[in-house]
Amino acid sequence: MPRRPILIAPSLLAADFACLGDELRRVEEAGADWLHVDVMDGHFVPNLTIGPVVVESLKQRARVPLDVHLMISEPRRYARAFVNAGAQVLTFHVETARDAADARETIALFRAEGVQRVGVSLNPDCPVERVLPLLGDVDLVLVMSVFAGFGGQRFLPETLAKTRAIRATGWTGYVEMDGGLNAETIPACAAAGADVLVSGSALFSAPDLREALTRFRAVAEAARGETIHA
Ligand code: DX5
Ligand code: ZN
Predict the structure, then answer these.
(1) Is 22 a catalytic residue?
(2) How many angstroms separate the Cα of 185 from the Cα of each of 30, 82, 192?
């Protein structure tokens, strides 16, 4: 089966929040496939970021899908608000669920609210076994390669084993990796089987955003190629 192309999802967390519309345009012109939007509630993670109101404004201008990463304790409570605001991909953290049955209830509620693509995420200290029973229920797994909460952290290479374990099951959904991704860390992510790559600080701090994004895509595609022919 031919694989989907690599998708690059810039994380707006590293953008200048005083001019989000311009920043959105800048990443779209640079070739972004999705726009990654980090939602934090000050409870599941110690940081606070943005809510549905901002997502709604972004949606008015976005040409690419909004990939909304909920780092919040009560994902069910806010699912409708984010769908109505225009989130096309909506991801919750499995740590917010008691067990697999509880996580499935969240997934079912997301679907009932009209989420196009449902994702489940896990922090570096959460075992991959928490998400393996859910692969048949979701469209995307977001493997955190740093602890959720802040941009600009160092990539944790031990998280790559989770991406490999998910792919080892033969699962063909999206595997997204998020945190500390740059031209040095992306090849390992792609070789492990990730096909959606989130980058915040490395992209937004690059002197030429388009050049950086193009390079990230190229090193990712090349690393996948090596896996095929290995
Ligand atoms: C961390 C967020 C990430 C973060 C990525 O909690 O989920 O999306 O913004 O930023 P960088 O690429 O700077 O690690
Ligand atoms: Zn994120």
Answers:
(1) no
(2) 20, 31, 11
Q: pTM above the 0.70 mark?
A: yes
Q: d(Cα 79, Cα 101) in Å, to the nearest integer?
A: 18
Going by CA atoms, what residue is nearest to atom 7 of ligand 1? 148
CATH of the domain at 205: 3.20.20.70
Residue 159 lies in a domain: yes
Beta bridge partners of 36: 11, 67
Domain, as residue range, for 42: 7-224
Instruction: Compute, in angstroms, the gap from residue 189 CA to the centroid of ligand 1.
Output: 15
Q: What is the pLDDT of residues 105-161, one digit of tens each?
A: 999 999 999 999 999 999 999 999 999 999 999 999 999 999 999 999 999 999 999
Residue 111 to residue 134: CA distance in whole angstroms: 14
Ligand 1 and 182: CB distance under 6 A? no
- Residue 2 lies inside a defined structural domain of this protein: no
